């Protein structure tokens, strides 16, 4: 059946390209995806696929087969606040907004999946839920969709998703077992001292010096308190304080982000960041306020779901084109919210083509994909769903 899926997907390649280029020319940021979700709903309606709106601009479609099993397939829809500098006929027509992460391709692929699987729904011994997620790049529409019940009625048994990858040649996929993406926790620390003349530091409490000690000590949480075999990062990306060279300010604000690969490390690093910061600040006579945000969790691939995806992909593109990835990504991915709720698998779809100079990194203003990846993504998603439901 897998060859039939690839043949079916290839037969609609022009349609897929046209859809993707339309999305690419009209990018929308998180929770602004009104045009995009409107196109999605229009496409589903034309096929007679029922759907409901969710998470503001999100869409949840359902293809009802003849059985009780249900698989969810997810695509994200939002773009990035970035100027498109590609010289192509389908470059962004919206100033300062661009599909620089491939979400236009993900949405297109899921629409292709919807069309093919809806055409054979009488053969499906179960249901397919189609999750079109808004705001993946910001707060993550997935958690809102989950809260609004997209995993219920009927209950979803497993979820799969994909992401285009510019470091994998078109025609191949990359699959990682176990942890795939890091969890993230942005933080802000306000360190308060007492302002003074720069020539008389003894008359004040210098928050700049205190901040310097805090920044260095935070790095030691990673290098000396976590196993060196387990990746984690604390990055301080912003420091603000002071107005002149000869004035000791009364406060400094730093902000940064924690990235961890294990749930237990996430909890530990957050706890230690607070303990270390408060300890140093109080020992140096200052005061502090600490705010740690809860952002995306770790993305875990469940072994049996990942194995099923691996086999489905091998049936479509051959064993030699399925690459097992060894290292996780320190980047975050809101599919993690789904993977925390249901057995899931997430993989990377190659979109690189050096011959066409399609080599530029995601989140960059020259990013593009080899559109030959679109039917491959459609076929693998279809095959994985079909295998599960047969």
UniProtKB/TrEMBL annotation:
Domain Peptidase M20 dimerisation per the UniProt entry, residue ranges: 187-276
One Pfam short name: M20_dimer
Source domain of life: Bacteria
CDD domains in UniProt: M20_Acy1
Protein name (Swiss-Prot/TrEMBL): M20 family metallopeptidase
Provenance organism: Clostridium moutaii
């Amino acid at each position: 059946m897998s060859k039939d899926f690839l043949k079916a997907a290839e037969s609609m390649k022009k349609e897929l390209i046209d859809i993707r280029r339309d999305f690419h020319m009209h990018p929308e940021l998180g929770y602004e995806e009104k045009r995009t979700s409107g196109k999605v709903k229009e496409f589903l309606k034309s096929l007679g696929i029922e759907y409901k709106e969710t998470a503001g601009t999100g869409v949840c479609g359902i293809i009802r087969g003849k059985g009780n099993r249900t698989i969810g397939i997810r695509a994200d829809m939002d773009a990035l606040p970035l100027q498109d500098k590609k010289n192509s006929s389908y470059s962004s027509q919206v100033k300062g907004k661009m599909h620089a992460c491939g979400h236009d391709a993900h949405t297109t692929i899921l629409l292709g999946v919807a069309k093919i699987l809806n055409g054979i729904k009488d053969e499906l011994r179960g249901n397919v839920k189609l999750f079109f997620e808004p705001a993946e790049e910001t707060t993550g529409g997935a958690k809102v969709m989950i809260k609004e019940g997209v995993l219920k009625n009927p209950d979803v048994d497993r979820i799969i998703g994909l992401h285009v990858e510019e470091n994998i040649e078109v025609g191949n996929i990359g699959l990682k077992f176990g942890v795939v993406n890091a969890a993230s926790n942005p933080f802000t620390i306000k360190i308060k001292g007492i302002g003074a003349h720069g020539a008389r530091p003894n008359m004040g409490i210098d928050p700049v010096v205190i901040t310097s000690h805090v920044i260095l000590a935070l790095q030691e949480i990673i290098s000396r308190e976590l196993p060196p075999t387990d990746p984690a990062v604390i990055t301080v990306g912003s420091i603000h304080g002071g107005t002149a060279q000869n004035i000791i300010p009364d406060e400094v604000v730093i902000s940064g982000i924690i990235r961890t690969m294990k749930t237990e490390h996430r909890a530990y690093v957050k706890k230690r960041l607070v303990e270390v910061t408060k300890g140093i600040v109080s020992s140096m006579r200052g005061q502090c306020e600490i705010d740690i945000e809860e952002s995306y969790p770790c993305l875990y691939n469940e072994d049996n779901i990942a194995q099923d995806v691996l086999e489905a992909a091998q049936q479509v593109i051959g064993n030699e084109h399925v690459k097992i990835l060894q290292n996780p990504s320190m980047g975050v991915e809101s599919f993690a919210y789904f993977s925390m709720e249901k057995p899931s698998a997430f993989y990377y779809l190659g979109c690189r083509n050096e011959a066409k100079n399609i080599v530029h990194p995601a989140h960059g203003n020259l990013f593009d994909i080899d559109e030959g990846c679109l039917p491959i993504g459609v076929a693998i998603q279809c095959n994985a769903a079909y295998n599960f439901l047969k």
